[in-house]
Design a protein that fits this description.
The chain is mainly β. It has helices spanning 6-10, 128-131, 138-154, 287-290, and strands spanning 19-21, 32-35, 44-50, 57-64, 67-68, 72-74, 77-83, 91-100, 105-113, 121-124, 174-176, 181-184, 187-191, 195-198, 204-206, 211-219, 223-231, 234-244, 251-252, 257-261, 271-278, 281-283.
């Protein structure tokens, strides 16, 4: 397994405040902290199980919002990144099992407070068939959704493949942020589950980090799409491409060219839609960049 990323180590002294919970073990210091103390809807959160050397912790398991957490050993304990659903309200449940030397364990049930995400409403025009697809396409759309759910779930079974910070897939202007309400042709249809980058047709699209190509296909809404499995639950997607340059099973490096900007699927013009998921939880992909730079 790659060494623990530097941002996971550095987040112990993040400028953001931390939430705290203690296990019922009689230990003098908190067993569990998380940063930020109040994560936003649709964001990443760092969970840390502390060890002060007087109470040996052998391993940590857990889940957040129903998704497994992948704790890794660090200098001061165990750390994992999790995802807060965009639809979460006041809090999100976390369950952490701390396995100690000698076979004892503590199970912690914590409700992490969640802050609201402020996002604008965007009015867009697109082809009518993408606002109200014909009934004949319902099965295709359902099957594509199930395939993508499987891709995202499999990332929990993949060991972490990355050790360097994530990078943007394009050095371009962000034209639409995460979480905005999308009004297509006057009808509210969805939230924006990613970030859009400007780009002319044929402009380069690069892998945000090392990973394995988990899925390449032409999807109804997403057009030509590439999904990368980075392991430890993290998946990134690159949508509306004009061309994909990789195939499933390829291992790609951070910054590697994987496709070209296009206007396939439900779009208003050429651009890259970049998304990120922690398993089945969709999060703001820019969080992958912010945590590297301690921008909590």
């Amino acid at each position: 397994m790659p060494p623990l990323p530097s941002y996971l180590l550095a987040l112990a002294v993040s400028l953001g405040s931390a939430g705290v919970a203690a296990a019922q073990s009689g230990v003098g210091r908190p067993d569990l902290t998380w940063r930020p103390s109040v994560p936003l809807q649709g964001s990443l959160v760092l969970l840390v199980v502390l060890s002060d050397g007087t109470d040996s912790v052998d391993a940590v398991q857990g889940e957040l919002a129903g998704e497994p957490l992948h704790f890794e050993r660090a200098a001061d304990g165990f750390r994992a990144v999790g995802g807060v659903p965009l639809e979460a309200e006041a809090s999100v449940p976390a369950r952490v099992v701390i396995e100690r030397a000698g076979g004892t364990s503590d199970t912690m049930m914590v409700a992490l407070p969640v802050g609201p995400r402020r996002a604008p409403r965007e009015r867009l025009r697109t082809a009518p068939e993408f606002v109200q697809p014909p009934e004949s396409l319902a099965e295709r759309i359902r099957a594509e959704r199930e395939l993508l759910e499987e891709v995202r779930s499999r990332a929990h079974a993949t060991p972490r493949l990355w050790s360097e910070p994530f990078v943007r897939p394009r050095a371009a202007l962000v034209t639409s942020g995460f979480g905005a309400a999308r009004v297509f042709n006057g009808v509210v249809r969805s939230r924006h589950f990613g970030v859009d980058f400007a780009g002319q047709r044929g402009a380069p699209v690069r892998a945000a980090n090392r990973g394995v190509v988990a899925f390449v296909a032409d999807l109804y809404y997403s057009g030509t799409a590439v999904y990368l499995d980075h392991g430890a639950g993290i998946v990134t997607g690159y949508l509306h491409l004009s061309r994909a340059l990789v195939i499933p099973g390829d291992t790609v490096a951070r910054g590697q060219l994987i496709g070209h900007v296009g206007a396939s699927g439900r779009v208003t013009g050429p651009h890259l839609h970049w998304l990120a998921g922690y398993g089945g939880v969709t999060v703001d992909p820019l969080d992958l960049l912010r945590i590297e730079n301690l921008r909590w």
